[in-house]
């Protein structure tokens, strides 16, 4: 099965069912025809199977429809993270060398800057209201295109999408994925989140990220409704949830925090019965809040990556808050010696090592785009090295203890930031917290907590004194894990999908 054929067959199965809602409402029959038109338009522009089409687009219907259209002609959809710097996006464009680039109003400024720095000459299309110099109108070309299915044979080994990693540790890396990998990931997501025919979900996670694509494609698998949301804002999200009677949410923990802070989670629970999260760990406090307010039938913690969509799934996130659960349906995992050249023999329960995933998994990529250096670092003997530290407990459940590079060695003891963060997040004065190791003459690295207070008007010295006293007397932390320093800040730097950018905290503090 391929993604484009999956859409067409769903349109035959449920032609009049609502497929997409938001700025444009379409049935499955209408969506199938629109994606046929976009595919035909691409072929008329000279795009051929195996080419790349890059998108500087908001999280919109245009982005969803274009991605699906490209699946019908074997073209590698290349959605770009428009929150990256122009220089990073210029690198991505040079690296992908796309035949066509599509831009909209939201991404216009950064797209112009990036394209000016990239020595490529693609066909430029504009999908917005304010035309870009030298660009042709996306919608005009689509309206003039044929609505019949394109005469192109696409096989499961053909390209589907290339996602660029965020580049928080260096240049962005292109992650090319096949039709087979994308279909497998989408089917696994449906099964692991226990979706049924006719689900509806909020398309709020960016489609330049694997979470956003999974929200989109899982709905096509079950003939569900994808409710477009170009920019996530909690009050607007709640209104969409209520209006469209959304049944399933797949968001990052920070988005759930934002929904909780509106005080309207009980309203969300009127229609939402299935919750899933990914991208970062969820604190036990937030787990408890969601359980109490929404009482979901399904509450999934999904742990994975762009390279291998599913590593592990905890099917009831509140059962063991922080646990990543068991390997995914199509996945094989091990925790191994993190040393370069180390064995791939699994470590004993409760022993921390690096989490590795089999590249024989149906959801796995097979190597980075034009990056043999990255392949050499991450791929060894058919195992993908995630760079994450973790351990299996005595029950066989996986726990993610942080990044290999994030582990703090303080006074010769290993301290995992996630464990300390989970404890500190329980203090009533703490809204958010990130823990890192800062250079220290005595300890080597000092466990340091960057704290966002629940009340931003609180005196920082008073807050620090409270936290220090609490850590000494009440917090369930071993003495060597207690923060030796606290920093009170207004916000925690995060990636677009909610991952804490610890290196930025370290760099900014040491400047």
Automatic annotation (TrEMBL):
Q: What is its EC number?
A: 6.2.1.31
Cite the GO molecular-function annotations of the record.
2-furoate-CoA ligase activity
The source's domain of life comes to Bacteria
Question: Which controlled-vocabulary keywords does the entry list?
Answer: Ligase
Q: Where is the AMP-dependent synthetase/ligase domain?
A: 8-369
Give every AMP-binding enzyme C-terminal domain span.
419-499
What Pfam families does the record point to? AMP-binding, AMP-binding_C
Keyword Kinase belongs to the record: no
| Protein name, per record | 2-furoate---CoA ligase
Q: Which organism is it from?
A: Flexivirga oryzae
């Amino acid at each position: 099965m391929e993604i484009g054929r999956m859409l067409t067959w769903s349109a035959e199965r449920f032609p009049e069912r609502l497929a997409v809602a938001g700025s444009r409402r379409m049935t499955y029959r209408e969506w199938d025809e629109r994606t046929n038109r976009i595919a035909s338009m691409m072929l008329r522009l000279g795009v051929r199977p195996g080419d790349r089409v890059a998108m500087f687009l908001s999280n919109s219907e245009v982005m969803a429809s274009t991605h699906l259209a490209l699946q019908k002609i074997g073209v590698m959809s290349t959605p770009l993270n428009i929150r990256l710097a122009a220089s990073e996006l210029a690198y991505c464009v040079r690296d992908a060398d796309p035949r066509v680039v599509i831009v909209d109003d939201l991404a216009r400024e950064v797209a112009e800057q990036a394209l000016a720095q990239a020595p490529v000459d693609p066909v430029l299309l504009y999908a917005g209201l304010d035309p870009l110099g030298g660009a042709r109108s996306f919608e005009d070309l689509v309206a003039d295109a044929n609505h019949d299915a394109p005469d192109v044979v696409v096989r499961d080994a053909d390209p589907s999408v290339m996602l660029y990693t965020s580049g928080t540790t260096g240049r962005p890396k292109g992650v090319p994925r096949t039709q087979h990998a994308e279909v497998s990931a989408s089917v696994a997501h449906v099964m692991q989140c226990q979706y049924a025919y006719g689900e509806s979900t909020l398309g709020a996670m960016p489609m330049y990220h694997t979470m956003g694509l999974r929200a989109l494609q899982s709905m096509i698998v079950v003939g569900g409704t994808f409710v477009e949301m170009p920019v996530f804002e909690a009050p607007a999200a709640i209104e969409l949830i209520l209006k469209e009677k959304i049944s399933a949410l797949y968001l990052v923990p920070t988005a759930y925090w934002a929904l909780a802070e509106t005080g309207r989670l009980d309203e969300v629970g009127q229609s939402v019965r299935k919750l899933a999260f990914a991208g970062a760990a969820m604190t036990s406090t937030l787990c408890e809040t969601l359980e109490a307010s929404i009482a979901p039938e399904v509450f999934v913690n999904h742990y994975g990556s762009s390279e291998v969509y599913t590593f592990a799934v905890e099917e009831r996130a509140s059962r063991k808050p922080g646990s990543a659960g068991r390997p995914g349906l199509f996945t094989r995992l091990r925790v191994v010696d993190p040393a370069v050249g180390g064995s791939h023999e699994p470590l004993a329960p409760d022993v921390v090592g690096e989490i590795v995933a089999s590249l024989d998994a149906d959801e796995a990529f097979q190597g980075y785009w034009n990056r043999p250096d990255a392949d050499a670092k991450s791929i060894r003997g058919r195992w993908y090295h995630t760079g994450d530290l973790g351990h299996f407990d005595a029950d066989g459940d996986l726990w993610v203890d942080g990044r290999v590079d994030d582990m703090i060695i303080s006074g010769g003891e290993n301290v995992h930031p996630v464990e300390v963060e989970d404890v500190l997040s329980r203090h009533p004065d703490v809204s958010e917290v990130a823990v890192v190791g800062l250079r220290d003459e005595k300890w080597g690295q000092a466990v340091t907590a960057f704290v966002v207070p629940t009340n931003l008007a609180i005196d920082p010295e008073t807050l620090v004194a409270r936290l220090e006293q609490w850590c000494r007397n009440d917090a369930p932390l071993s003495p060597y894990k207690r923060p030796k320093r606290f920093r009170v800040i207004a916000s925690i730097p995060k990636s677009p999908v909610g991952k804490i950018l610890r290196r930025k905290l370290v760099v900014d503090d040491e400047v």
